[in-house]
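Appendix C reproduces, verbatim, an entry submitted by the partner laboratory led by Prof. M.T., so that reviewers can inspect both the input and the predicted structure.
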Amino acid sequence: MDDNYFGSYFRRRIVFIFMIGFSAVSITQLFNMQILEQPSYSEKSDENSVKPIYQTAPRGVFFDRNHKVLVGNKPSFTLRITPSTYDKKLTPYIEAILGTSPGYIDRILKQNESYSKFIPRRIAKDVSFKVIAWYEENSSKLHGVDYIMETQRDYSFGIIGSHMFGYTKEIPMETYLHRKNEYDIGDNIGFGGIEKTYEDYLRGDKGIKYMLVDSKQKTIGRYKNGEEDQTTVKGDDLILTIDKDAQSVAEEAFKDKRGAVVAIEPSTGEIIAFLSAPQYDLQDFAKVTTNEVWRDLNNNPDKPMFNRASMSTFAPGSTFKMISAIAALEEGIIDTNFKVTCGGGYQFGDRYFKCLHVHGTVNVQTSIEKSCNTFYYTLVNKIGLDLWSKYAKKFGFGSKSRIDIPEEAAGIVPSNDYYNKVYGKNGWTKGFVISLGIGQGELNVTPLQLAQYAALFANSGKSARPHFLKGYTDTRTNQYVEVKPQTYDIGISKKSFDIVRRAMYLVVNGAGTATNIKSDELQISGKTGTAQNPHGKEHALFIGFAPYNNPKIAIAVLVENAGFGSTIAAPIARDIIKAYLIKGNKEGNKNLAASTNIQEERIAH
C-alpha cells in the first residue's frame, strides 16, 4: 500500500469522525433546546413580548372627625412618552391634541433627561377622553407614546384646606435617589402638610399588570392569564381631627381677608379648624403644574403659598397680658387685692407709656376684662424680664409645638440673654421690658401658639400636643387604629388659672372688650388684641374658649391689617365656635347644654 493511499484514507477517517461527532453534539443540543429546556426558552420568548403596565395605588382618603370626606380620589388618564422609542416628529401633533403651547413636550423631556431613557415620562395628567380616543385610533403610528389609568386627588368636597392638606407632585431626583426601593421615576409623593407627614400611610402599594404585545406594541392578551400580576393596595384612609362645619365657616369668613385661624380641642390637642388665608387651589397641583401657575403663585403679593397659621410671627398685643397675670399670681408677687390706678398711662423714667383709656383703680381681673395697659406696664416691671420669659415659655411660646405638618416657626420670647446678644449688655434698658407687658416689642408668636395658649387656659394648664391625625384605617387589615395624643401639664396651680379664666369670661360676658359676641348659649370666654404692624394697619386678634365650665374648643383668630380685635376677629371666632358646638356636633350640643346648666348655677351663687 503506497503512501498516497494511506494519507488519503487517514484523512477521510478524520473527517468522518469529526462529522459524526459534530452531528452528535448538534443533535444533543437540539434535543436539550427543543425538548428538555423548551419551557425556559418559551418563557424567555414570552418575556420579550411582555409589557408591564404599572398601576398607581389610590392614595388614602381624608375624612373629618365625623367621617365626612375632605379629600378623595378620582380616576384619570395620564399620557406618557418613553424617550428611547419616541419619534420627536410626533411632538407637534401631540401638543396640538393636548392644546399646549409649542415646546411644552421638549421642556418636560429636558427636565427629566437625567433619568433612564427607557422610563416613561408623564406628559399630561387628567387628559380628556377625546385625547384617549385619538391615541387608540393612531396607536400603531405613535411609537413611544402610551397612556395609563391613574387616580388623582379630588378636592370637590367643599373644603379648600390647602395649607393643612398639602399636595402631591412627581418625586424629585434627590428624593428618588434616597428611596429607589419604594418609588419609581414619575411617581407622586406628598409635598407639604398632611400629605407629606403621612406619606408612608397614604401612598399604598403599586400594582403591575403584564400584557402580551406584538412587534408593533399592540396588546394581544394577558400574560399567563394574569397569574403573575400584582394587585394594587390602596393607601390607608386618615381620620382627621378637623370638623368640616367649623372649617367651612372659617374659610367663608376669610374669603376676602388675610390672616389665620387655629381651633383646638383643649384636652386632646385635636385641631378642629386650621386656616391660612389667602389659600391656593389644590386642583392646580392634581395635574402637571404649569410654569404659569407657579409664577402666579410666587409673584402674588398676598403670598398664598405661605402658611400664616403656623409660620407667620407677630406681636400678640393684649392677648398676652394673661402671661404677666399668671406669673405674678403664681409667684406670689400679687394677689386679687393688688390694685393699680390708671390715669391714662405709665411713667417710666423720662418716657410715658400710654393706655387706651383712663380706667381708674383696677385689680387683676378688671385689668384683663377692660384691657388696661397701665396695669401691665406696672406688673411686668415688678415681675422682671427673666421671670416673665420663663412663664411665656411654659405656655409654649418661643419653641415649636411639633405639630404634625412640616411648616412651623418658633417665634421669639425675649430674655436678658436675648437682649444682650442682640443689643449688647449696655445697648438696652428696662424700658424695653415695659412694652412686653402688653404683648409688644421684640416678642413674636404664631397663631398656632396662641391657640395652644388659649387651650391651656381652657383646661387649666393641661393639654396635648396639637395634631391633625385622630386615627387611620389600615387597608390591609381593615382595622381602625386610634392615635393617642401626647399630653402635658405646664405645672401652674388651678387657683391662678381660676382667677384669670374668670377675667376672660368677663371680657365677653361682663363689661369687657368683647361683649359684642356675648351668647348665653355658647358661654364664650376670651381676650381681644390689636397687634402693632410696622408695615400698615394693625392686626386684629382674638383668643378664647367655650363653653366656660366644660371647654370643648379653644381658638385663635388673626385678621391682618383689619384694626380692632373686638370688632373684626372676635365675631369670626364666635361663628366658628357656634358651628362646632351647635351645627355640626350633636355630642357637642349635649356637652354645651350640660356646661350651660353648670354655668347658670355658678353664676346664680
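Residues 3-36 form one domain. Additional entries are available on request from the coordinating office.
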